[in-house]
Design brief:
Elements lengths: L8 E6 L21 H13 L3 E6 H7 L8 E4 L12 H9 L3 E2 L3 H8 L1 H10 L7 E4 L12 E5 L13 E2 L5 H12 L3 E5 L3 E11 L4 E11 L2 E2 L7 H5 L3 E4 L3 H17 L5 E9 L5 E7 L9 H7 L5 H12 L3
Parallel strand pairs: 1-2, 1-3, 3-4
Antiparallel strand pairs: 5-8, 6-7, 6-8, 9-10, 9-13, 10-11, 10-12, 13-14
Helix pairs in contact: 1-10
Length: about 325
């Protein structure tokens, strides 16, 4: 399809040093980054839909871009630099410049980035969440019963999570917390570990029809259910994570909770909400909210919606259509 100047121009913004279409051979393993393969998938879908697409290198490039007036909508995949508010830069710029954007607001980006704050807000709203606290290796201030799970408070993509993240006693705990603080320079959250099924719920809002598309997958590790186990950074990077459909009753339960959380927090066009379903008590706990989920073709978000016959191209189309002015 020939693209004319009158068509929609989508600016995909993410943090790169080279054009992502040509840099997929050198993926970074040392940070919460967007992999070039995800951008390849998004850019490919945008062009298949007949939209003009440009790729900009983060918030600074968006500010410096000389033809900003030609941008119809920003497809935000920028993760910024450092700090709890690092994902907020592009949404703030778009708000200031009145550019439509795919994705959540700066407020929601920062809120859901801070796992401990999100946990407390959801608890105050009446949702089931694991007991949690910020743990300090100097004060040794643990107030939660074992087993506990520890991780950096501001990170995603299982960054900072490995085989030493689950503890059944204090042995080695504070040494691990000190290691995480020194390496990630941020608070460390300790959570009650919920043993059981892990589920990821994908939410996509069709703003034109004011309806939700919802899909859900159960997380597997090396094709096995998670029993006193969890996903590490290495599992994410090296393909150990697989998906399958959960039981129908569990799918309905977590999907209804996820939609309520999405609405109660005022999230925008899409989100992914993660749960653990306790095999012991039968209770379901929200463990994380992503306002910036991975949109690569093989991701949990896309895999979940594919179960509902919503493919990757449809997802990208709905997101762009929902962001454009009516």
């Amino acid at each position: 399809m020939e693209i004319t100047e009158n068509q929609v121009t989508v600016a995909v913004v993410y943090d790169i040093s080279k054009n992502p279409i040509f840099s997929s051979t050198s993926e970074k393993n040392d940070g919460d980054v967007i992999f070039p393969s995800e951008i390849d998938d998004i850019v490919g879908a945008i062009r298949k839909l007949g939209f003009r697409c440009i790729v900009l290198d983060g918030a600074k490039s968006l500010l410096e871009y000389q033809k900003r007036d030609e941008i119809s909508v920003v497809f935000n995949k920028s993760k910024g630099a450092i700090g709890v508010d690092r994902k907020s830069m592009v949404p703030m710029i778009c708000k200031f410049l009145s550019i439509p954007i795919v994705g959540s607001s700066a407020y929601h980006m920062a809120l859901c980035r801070h796992k401990y704050h999100t946990n407390n807000i959801l608890r105050g709203m009446g949702y089931n969440v694991p007991l949690a606290q910020i743990i300090n290796y100097q004060d040794k201030n643990l107030k939660i019963d074992f087993p506990i799970f520890i991780k950096p408070t501001w990170e995603g993509g299982a960054l900072g999570i490995d085989e030493q993240s689950l503890f059944f006693s204090e042995k080695g705990l504070y040494k691990r917390v000190e290691y995480l603080v020194s390496n990630f320079n941020q608070p460390i959250i300790a959570e009650e570990f919920i043993n059981g099924t892990e589920l990821k719920v994908a939410i996509l809002k069709d703003k034109k029809r004011d309806i939700y598309f919802v899909g859900c997958v159960e997380i597997l590790k090396n094709s096995k259910a998670l029993k006193y186990d969890y996903i590490t950074r290495k599992d994410v990077l090296y393909g150990s994570v697989k998906y399958r459909l959960p039981e129908k009753s569990l799918f309905l339960k977590v999907s209804n909770i996820a939609i309520k959380i999405h609405e109660d927090l005022g999230l925008e066009s899409y989100s992914r909400i993660d749960f653990r379903h306790s095999d012991q008590t039968g209770e379901t706990y929200c463990i994380e909210i992503s306002t910036h989920p991975d949109l690569s073709i093989g991701s949990s978000y896309v895999s979940a919606l594919l179960q509902e016959d919503i493919n990757h191209e449809h997802i990208v189309s709905k997101l762009i259509e929902g962001a454009l002015p009516k």
